[in-house]
Amino acid sequence: MSEVDQLLLAREKKGVRFALVARLGMLGIVFGLHVFLYHTIGELALVGLLCGGAAIGTAALLMHLDRQGCPKLTGYLATMLDVLVLSGLPVIWYIGTGADQVVGPQFFLQTRMTVGVLMVMVVNALAFRPAYPLVIAVGFVAIYGGFSGMILNDPRTAITTDP
User: Mean pLDDT across the stretch 149-160?
Assistant: First the structure.
């Protein structure tokens, strides 16, 4: 491996490590905000389980990065973990707020997930590999495609051409 390749690998490893630590901070903030804003204890428990599991996974990825030194694999696994969290949170909010009893799945499009996704994309961009934010973007499109399918299949959805 040439000196340039070694420098690029070290820089990517440092970027992935920084992104993983930032991810841990974001998970802590998400859970901390839910402690003050939860609707039911069940919602808080599910968010805690999701964020705690993601934090454990992130810590394991940090250890893997330190032991194996493979930033590419670690980065891709971390982005998949982000997609899992981004797909789980709206579902927990939907069920936790009782929206599933009152409104249809249109609730999913009313959440502020776009801001969260942009924050996650910025954190993944810190790893200096353009494919990581792209994976998040593709995952986000798939999540919203799934939500759109749920909305269109819900009997409470009325499609109209009226403005």
Answer: 87
